[in-house]
Amino acid sequence: MLITFEGIDGAGKSTQVVKLKRYLQELGREVLTLREPGGTEVAEQIRELLLQTKHDIAPVTELLLFAASRAELVQKVIIPAIEQGEVVILDRFSDSTTAYQGYGRGLSLELLAEVNRIATFGLRPDVTFYLDITPEDALIRKFSEKSLPLAFDSEELDRMESSGLEFYRRVREGYLALHTAERERFELIDAQLSPSEIHQRIITRLEQFETARLTCN
Length: 217
Hints:
Layout lengths: L1 E5 L6 H14 L4 E5 L5 H11 L7 H25 L3 E5 L2 H11 L4 H12 L6 E6 L2 H11 L19 H17 L4 E5 L4 H22 L1
Parallel strand pairs: 1-3, 1-4, 2-3, 4-5
Helix pairs in contact: 1-8, 2-3, 3-5, 4-5, 4-7
């Protein structure tokens, strides 16, 4: 089973990944948590390259670097884990490419669909949880957690985060479009809810998914 979490930085994905992993382990499930880009030695090096502010990376180059990292992770880690019966929880996956490089950077959605198909080897999430928050609120949350003054050009922001508010507004539009197009898979949750409320909604949705799967079988 593949569960993915999506949303802009500051939405609270990492917190929910930890909570869900603990919950599933208490049920006796084998759980593997991963992040994108990352998860293998090569993918982590690509992650470092992508996030460094000193690099001015062209949109297509950025797309292909993300895809290379994803292909490495899917082939070497995710597919083997799923075949062994593990639940894989992934912080970002192919939907991020659609939202960030498609809506955010303005690359062709048709091109992205083909690149995603190649990089994922056709693998698709069973359930995706999108934590929705405005870019303004996400940035405020990020800086308040670190007790830093709010600054949109702060050195605390990595290369992706430094893309600006308009970029992140377009990214959010992309995520909302994905939710509209794939409501059965793509679950939208208000990221401004408390962590416990968000966690409960995630559990409820997974219970519904399991029930539906058992019914189909």
